[in-house]
Amino acid sequence: MARITASVYTSHVPAIGAAIDHHKTGEPYWRKVFAGYDFSRQWIQSNRPDVVFLVYNDHATAFSLELIPTFAIGTAAQFRPADEGYGARPVPTVVGHPELASHIAQSVIQDDFDLTIVNRMDVDHGLTVPLSLMCGELDPAKQAWPFKVIPFAVNVVQYPVPSGRRCFALGQAIRKAVESFDEDLNVQIWGTGGMSHQLQGARAGLINAEWDSRFLDRLIAEPATLAQLPHVEYVREAGSEGIELVMWLIARGAMADIAGGAAPRVAHRFYHVPASNTAVGHLILENQA
C-alpha cells in the first residue's frame, strides 16, 4: 500500500521565489534564509518521495473572490506555474498524480469532508516556492521536479476559514486515504504558509518570534492540543496572515503518531527573521518505521 513517510513544513514567501529566480540567494540579506534549507535539499535527495501531497493557499490566481473553495484538490495530470501579475515563475510544470488524487478525494469525501475537485488550474508561489526551497533551482527547459505533486488548496484568505481542529482531522482522513491506495508509493505531505506576518493595516510588518517558536514546539510535541487554538489567537499573536499556519496542522494530522504510532523524528528545524516582511519557519518530521 501507499504510505506517508514524512511531513515537511515551510513558509512560502513570494520574495523567496523572486530571490531564487533572479539569482540573489547568495546576497547577504538572503544568505541566511537559504542556508536554512541546505540540509533539506540534501535530505530530499536521500528521501525522495514518489508523490508529495502539498497543502498551500492560492493567492487569487486559480480562485478569485468570486469562487472560494474551502478545500480544493488538484486531480489533473499537470499544473502550470501561474502568472501572478509579473509573469510565471521560470520553474518546471508540476506533474500531478491523478489516480492517487482521485482516490484521496473519494475516500476523504466519504469521510464527510467536502472537497472541491479541480481538473485544471495553475499553481502560484504558495506551491512553487516550497518546491524550489526543497529541490533547488531547476531549468524548466531541461529539468523536471523530482516527484509528482498533488496540489491541495485551502482557503485562508477570505473568512470564514477552516478551524485548526478541522484541518487536523482532515490530515487524519488524508492519511487513511493514502494508506488504502493499492500501490506501493512513498508519499510525503507538506504544509506551507506562515509563519507570523501581517501585510496590511496598522500592524503591517508584525513578526512574533516567541510565539512562532512555541508553535513549532507544540506542533512537534502536542499537535492535538495545538489544533484547538482559536482563530483569534492566530490573528492577535501572529498577524492577519498568520492564520496560514492551520495548513501545517493538515500535514501534522497525517503523521503516524496521531493514529497510535511512534512519535516522529525531528530531522530538521529552522527559523529566521526576516525574509521580506515575514518570519520563515521550516520543519521536517519523519515517521518511524
How would you describe the shape? globular
- Poorly predicted ranges (pLDDT <50, ≥5 residues)? none
Spell out the CATH superfamily.
LigB-like
Q: Tell me about the largest β-sheet.
A: 8 strands, mixed
Class of secondary structure makeup: alpha/beta
Largest beta sheet: strand ordering: 6-3-7-2-8-1-10-9
CATH architect. name? 3-Layer(aba) Sandwich
- Average pLDDT taken over every residue: 97
Kindly, what is the distance between the CA atoms of the first and last residues, rounded to a whole number of angstroms? 15 Å
- Tell how many strands the DSSP assignment holds: 10
When the domains are counted, the total is: 1
Share of helical residues? 25-40%
Give the SSE order as H and E letters: EHHHEEEEHEHEHEHHHHEE
Please identify the top-level CATH class.
Alpha Beta
Keyword list:
289 residues, alpha/beta, eight-stranded mixed sheet, two-stranded antiparallel ribbon, globular
Layout: helices, strands, pairs:
Blueprint: E1 3-10, H1 14-21, H2 28-35, H3 38-46, E2 51-56, E3 71-74, E4 78-79, E5 94-95, H4 98-110, E6 116-118, H5 125-135, E7 148-154, H6 164-179, E8 186-192, H7 209-221, H8 223-226, H9 231-238, H10 246-253, E9 265-275, E10 278-286
Parallel strand pairs: 1-8, 2-7, 2-8, 3-6
Antiparallel strand pairs: 1-10, 3-7, 4-5, 9-10
Helix pairs in contact: 1-5, 4-6, 6-10
